[in-house]
Amino acid sequence: AREVADSLRPLPRRRSVHDRHGCRGDAAERRRRRRDRGRADHARDPGGIPGHRARPQRALGAVARVRHARAGRGLSTGLREIPLARPFLDEREEELVLEVLRSGRLSLGPTIDRFEELVAERVGAPYAVALSSGTAGLHLLARSAGLGRGDEAITSPLSFASSANCFIFEGATPVFADVDPRTLNLDPAALEAAITGRTKAVVAVDMFGYPCELDEIRAVCEQHGLALIEDSAEALGAEYKGRPVGGHGVPAVFGFYPNKQVATGEGGVVLTSSEEEWQLLRSLRNQGRDYEGGAWFHHVRLGWNYRWTDVQAAIGIGQLEKLDRLLALRSEAATRYGRMLEGSGIETLCTDDADHVRSWFVYVVAVPRGTDRDRVMEELRAQGIGTADYVPCVHLQPYMRETYGFTEGLCPVAEEIASRTLALPFYPQLEAEDQQRVVETLLGAL
CATH for 91-321? Predict the structure, then answer.
């Protein structure tokens, strides 16, 4: 017993360098002194937005300062980096997030309920279901539409992969119909030509925040008995024929990735006019649990963990409160780009008209035919300017080619425009002088 007791005694504490030199002190106090020695005033205005208070940043260590400097400069010029996208968040989002953290309700709580009410009210839809992503929303709508093996579903090749992946998750085969060169959205005539006896659903995309020809597409779907889903992930704030996108009685999905009009990190929401579908989606997002107050472990159907968090919903509420302002700032930045690019040979895309009011998500342009688009992008990046090839055609992605045998020539309009398009830096707090530098670099690279 004595041996066991001896073995359990703590070993003598090894003297630290502070002990040996008689300056042990409190660890927290030492850390504070180190910070104070290196503290500098790094306060800067995050984007020059009126009313957005700049905050002092903590001092950086020597290595961190080098990394920080490299991250904020062009690859070869020493110029300040202009990122492709940047969310606009302020003290209001912080305040709302802190309220959630202090409440202890972090998932499927009242903050999510409030967010759903606000977004449904915003677009004029009866019901909203918040989810972990826009992709999750598309998947659950494909499930709600009854898609399965042997079915086909049609969508646009000019979109993000989730517009087609949502069918594949349910075992259906994706089919692509070409786009209208004016809107870059699904061409109703091409859609009708792609319908077969196996077609069961259509996902119509509001590409780059520009509304699709919803009435024409809906007429085609009704004629052939097809389910219609609107992928509005990029179009919160857009209007079609005088009404908000998402409020036209067609199940629609918005997304909240950091470059979106409402940025919560991750997240999405489904808008629907059907109470039955609303209840189904609430069950499917929560592992198939009984919506009507069943026991926590009472699962009535197959479901998924597509739950959102109240922390993200709190950020979303703060974003919705200032959405009109954010949309106005985006529109102003887009207008400035348009003026700067007039007569340059660069094509600006998707012009508003009486039926289509765009919500500015990204600013995408097309370089002249015969121009090496990829080389232009390399030059922009070399000058510290963010850019991306918005967007490669979905049917030509490696997975789609290998799995379904899609090849070039299937959707010639989409393929041609996708070979020439690129995105320029775009966000609410983008300043005119930065846009001028972007445009000068772009034109110099042609």
Answer: 3.40.640.10
